[in-house]
Amino acid sequence: MSGGIRFDSVTVAYDGNVVLDSLDLTVEPGEVMALLGPSGSGKTTALRAVAGFVRPASGRVFLGGRDVTGLPPYARGIGMVVQQYALFPHMRVEENVAFGLKARKSPKVPRAEIRTRVAEALEMTGMAGYARRYPRELSGGQQQRVAIARALAIRPGVLLLDEPLSALDARLRSGMLAELARLHRELPDVTILYVTHDQVEALTLADRIAVMDSARLQACGTPRELYRAPGDEFTASFVGNANLLPVTVGSGGVAFGGGELKVDTEGAAPGARATLCVRPHLVGLGEGPNRLAGTVREIQWRGATHRLYVEVDGHRVIADLRELRDPPAHGDEVTLHFAPEDATLLAAGVGHD
Ligand SMILES: Nc1ncnc2c1ncn2[C@@H]1O[C@H](COP(=O)(O)OP(=O)(O)O)[C@@H](O)[C@H]1O
Ligand SMILES: [Mg+2]
C-alpha cells in the first residue's frame, strides 16, 4: 500500500491553545518530507495527526487520497518511530518486530508470513544477527534500528519518524543518517514524513523541507530552494547559517551602512526597508564586488575553515573561509566581499530596529 499524505487546513488545539494552525501540506507518494522547526513549533503534533493519535479541531488528513481523519491509528497502515525507541523491554528483538503483525486481527497474518517479514525487516536494518536478544542487550543505535524494523515489518505505505536520531551521539547519528538514506533507496515507494529540529538531517535526507515556526508552516521547498533563496528571515537562519543585514532598497542595489551594495532588487519598492541574506561561506576576504569593510571581532579556526566575525557599520558579518595561511588577528581592519548573485533580498523583519 502506497500513497502520499495531505494535510487540508489541519488545526489542532489543546485546551483552546492552537498548537497547529491550519496546516496545508502535501507529501507526494514516495517522497521524503522533513518537518523542520524549533522545539514546540508543532512538528510532533502534525505527525500525531497523521498517525491518528490526535484529533484535529478542524481540517482533514488524507492518506493515499483517502480521508482518514475519523479512522483509528491501527486502521491507517502507518509505521511510526519515535525518539525514545519505545521497545518492549520484556520481549526479544524478533518479538518486538513481530508485534504489529501479530496484533492484526482481520485478516490475521499467518505465522509463516510473520516470520518472513520479521526476517526481512531485520535484514534491511542490519539487525539480522540480533533476533534473540533483549532490548537491554543492545546499544542505543541498535535499539533504534529495531524500532525502525518494527515499523517496516507491517510494510507501511507511510513511515513517520519523529526525531529518530536525537537520542544518539553525533558519530552514530551520521551513520544512521546514511542508513536511512539507503533504506529509502531500497523502499522508494514508502512515503516518509521526518520530524527534526536538525537542519543537517533535513538537508541531507529530504526531497523537500517544510519549515515550521510557532504552529505555522513558514516555508516549503527543496533543500536547495530554501537554502539558495529563502523567502523569509526565519527560514534563512533555520536552514543553514545566514548573515542578515538591514538595508534600504535603492535602484539597482541597496544601501547598507554608509555604502551601496549591488544586488537584485526585483520586486522590492525603492526606499523600502529590507533584509539582505548572505550565506557565510559565500563571503570572501579581500577586495571584490560588494565591499564590506570592518574590524575583526573574533576568529575561530575550525580545521578546514576559519570563521571570521567582522563588525561592519555596527553589524556582525560572519565569513566562513577555507583555512587561511595567514589569518588576520583580532582587531585587524579587513575587507570582505560577496558576489551580487549570492545575496537574497528578504522582506524586513527582526534585523531592523
Ligand atoms: N498533550 C498535550 N497537551 C497540551 N499541550 C501539548 C500537548 N502536546 C503538545 N503540546 C504543546 O503543543 C505545542 C507543540 O508541541 P509539539 O507538537 O510537541 O512541538 P515540537 O514537536 O515541534 O517540539 C507545544 O507548546 C507543546 O507544549
Ligand atoms: Mg516533537
Task: Describe this protein's structure.
The structure is a single chain. By secondary structure, this protein is α+β, with helices and mostly antiparallel strands. The chain has two domains: about 5-235, P-loop containing nucleotide triphosphate hydrolases (Rossmann fold), CATH 3.40.50; about 240-345, Nucleic acid-binding proteins (OB fold (Dihydrolipoamide Acetyltransferase, E2P)). It has helices at about 45-50, 95-100, 110-125, 140-155, 170-185, 200-205, 225-230, 235-240; strands spanning about 5-15, 15-25, 30-35, 60-65, 65, 80, 160, 190-195, 210-215, 215-220, 245-250, 255, 260, 275-280, 285, 290-300, 305-310, 315-320, 335, 345. The strands form four sheets. Strands 6-7-8-3-9-10 form a six-stranded mixed β-sheet, sandwiched between helices. The chain has a five-stranded antiparallel β-sheet with strand order 13-12-11-14-20. A hairpin with a 2-residue loop joins strand 12 and strand 13. Helix 2 packs parallel to helix 4 (about 140-155) and helix 3 crosses helix 4 (about 140-155). The longest helix has 17 residues, at about 170-185. It is elongated, with a radius of gyration of 24 Å. The chain starts with a strand and ends in a 6-residue tail after the last strand. The site of adenosine-5'-diphosphate has 10 residues, from helix 1.
